[in-house]
Amino acid sequence: MRHNLSLAVLVCLAAPLRAQTPVPQAASHPVTITVPAAKPEDVASIESILGALYDVISGPAGQARDWNRMRSLFIPDGRLMPSGVRPDGSVGIRLLTVNDYIATSGPVLERVGFQEKEIARRVERFGHIAHVFSTYEGRMQTEPTVIRGINSIQLLNDGKRWWVISVYWEAERPDMPLPREYLPQD
């Protein structure tokens, strides 16, 4: 049995956007956003940064996540973008910064316990950029159901390390099963 939307999508689509205080800046002096330093082993390769991305959101109920580790994987203005079908049938998307995602989904992930893993991957790469279709499978500790879908992940290698630019995803639904080419090939 599968949910129509993943927990993260439900939280992100249902929650109102938080008001943000604009940061004043002079046109000639843009604000510099910094991120925590990444563990070198987390950002050395496409495989390692994807592994770190899945690892950081996963954990048992009651376990705090290492949100600074998550922040360290993304460019300073990186985005997480859940999409899905709302209860009224319309399709929606949320544009979230990493901090928006942490504030919106973090407490829920920690409260219910959530494990997500990659079950298949397709990578396209050109020069310093890469696009990954990463098929995921997730489980909430409080429910036996399996949640599957596809994360569309955009990456950049700046010559020193890999960075997540954005993660855009949609969960599998009964009327939209995962295509065979995005499932594990035996």
For the biggest sheet, the summary is:
7 strands, mixed
Low-confidence segments: 1-27
SSE ordering: HHHEEEHEEEE
Proportion of residues in helical segments:
10-25%
| Content-based structural category | alpha+beta
How many β-strand runs? 7
* Number of DSSP helical runs: 4
The figure for the number of domains is: 1
Under the CATH scheme, which class?
Alpha Beta
Question: What is the CATH-assigned architecture?
Answer: Roll
Rg over C-alpha atoms, rounded to the nearest angstrom: 17 Å
CATH topology: Nuclear Transport Factor 2, Chain: A
C-alpha geometry: globular
State mean pLDDT (0 to 100 scale): 86
InterPro entries: NTF2-like_dom_sf
Protein name: DUF4440 domain-containing protein
Signal peptide: 1-19
Keywords: Signal
Structural features, described:
With 186 residues, this protein is of the alpha+beta class. It has a single domain, classed as Nuclear Transport Factor 2, Chain: A, CATH 3.10.450. It has four helices and seven strands; from the N terminus they run H-H-H-E-E-E-H-E-E-E-E. Strands 1, 2, 3, 4, 5, 6 and 7 form a seven-stranded mixed beta sheet that branches. Strand 1 (74-85) and strand 2 form a beta hairpin. Residues 1-19 form the signal peptide.
